[in-house]
Amino acid sequence: MIIDSHQHFWKYDPIRDSWIDGTMKTIQRDFLPSDLGPVLKKNNVDGCIAIQADQSEDESNFLLNLAEENNFIKGVVGWVDLCDPNVDQRLAHYSQSPYFKGVRHILQAERPEFMLQDAFLNGIEKLSFFDLTYDILVYSHQLKNSIALVSKFPEQRFVLDHLAKPPIKSGKLGDWKNDIMELAKNTNVYCKLSGMVTEAVLGNWSKEDFRPYMDVVLDAFGTERIMYGSDWPVCLLSGNYTEVLSIVSDYIDQFSVQEQSQIMGVNAYKFYGLNQ
């Protein structure tokens, strides 16, 4: 079983989706289940987790509706305002859906200290009550604050998106490696092997470019706490789905069948509590 732990859908709106700027014309259009379904089938991927790309409850509703209509969408990581004093009510509302598996706030767009403010911490604290996960989307310079965040909630399930966007273009490891090793000491934290091709030179990379970074993550998290994610359709800026999948599948070919199964599907299934 292969589960793509990280992909997006949207009906493109140039105002709402202003982050998709003029350098990203490839993805300045709608991307819906009708686009992804055949791609997953072609690559023998059994299902996916739809991750929020917009900071609104409309986004959560949109993704949940798609999950209800498309069996291959196994779960949704949506958005609620974790700083809202009434966050309990919003989490209770969304937790009524069997597809609502977790929450993400786009922390990479915030100041590093944002994630350690009391209001945000209050929201994170509520997640475990509803058995919800949290996806950490940060740049590498925000990792130290991320370490402080996860250490406050040892019972909360966290997963780091895109390896915290290491400096793949430069080929350097630097502080990123040390911070990843420190973060992984918190056994409640997982890491997605996702988003790598857009941190490399777009459209001009080799699989060897990613090996040093995957080596670090494997050493830090082990095969039981890492999972495959495509970051489709954002990945299309630098490679097609099959190419992105093969970066991970070729890398883990050295592992046992059980370990490969963990990385490609079992870990995501367990982490997000999938039930179908």
Describe the structure in your own words.
35% of the residues lie in helices and 13% in strands. It is an alpha/beta fold and 276 residues long. The protein has one domain (3-271): Alpha-Beta Barrel (TIM Barrel), CATH 3.20.20.140. Strands 1-2-3-4-5-6-7-8 form an 8-stranded parallel sheet. Strand 5 (133-136), helix 5 and strand 6 (158-160) form a beta-alpha-beta unit. Helix 5 runs parallel beside helix 6 and helix 6 runs parallel beside helix 7. The model has no long low-confidence stretch (mean pLDDT 97).
Shape, please?
Answer: globular
What is the distance, rounded to the nearest whole angstrom, between the alpha carbons of the first and last residues?
A: 12 Å
Low confidence ranges: none
Based on the coordinates given, report the CATH architecture. Alpha-Beta Barrel
Any idea of the CATH class?
Alpha Beta
Rg computed from alpha carbons, rounded to a whole number of angstroms:
17 Å
- Helix count, DSSP H or I runs of 4 or more residues: 9
Number of strands: 8
Roughly what is the average pLDDT, rounded to an integer? 97
What proportion of the residues form beta strands (DSSP E)?
A: 5-15%
Helical/strand content category: alpha/beta
Q: What's the main sheet like? A: 8 strands, parallel
Overall tally of structural domains: 1
Q: What portion of residues is helical? A: 25-40%
Strand order across the largest sheet? 1-2-3-4-5-6-7-8
CATH topology name, in short, is: TIM Barrel
CATH fourth-tier homologous superfamily: Metal-dependent hydrolases
